[in-house]
């Protein structure tokens, strides 16, 4: 089907649904929409991770201060030049 025929068919179906509503079981709809308490599935607790995920964290803690000192020395040398 071409786009024109397809659109005409969709328009026809939409009009039928809009103006020629069928019998609706209101009580069934109300039960479905109102519902009762919603049951949430119980998920297992997340796995406990080790405190140190980064294998280089120990090195950063040990040598991090030295890196900061080196950078400040380089800045001082650049300012003097």
From TrEMBL:
Residues 1-53 are annotated as: Disordered. Residues 13-23 have a biased composition (Basic and acidic residues). Residues 1-12 have a biased composition (Basic residues). This is DUF3073 domain-containing protein.
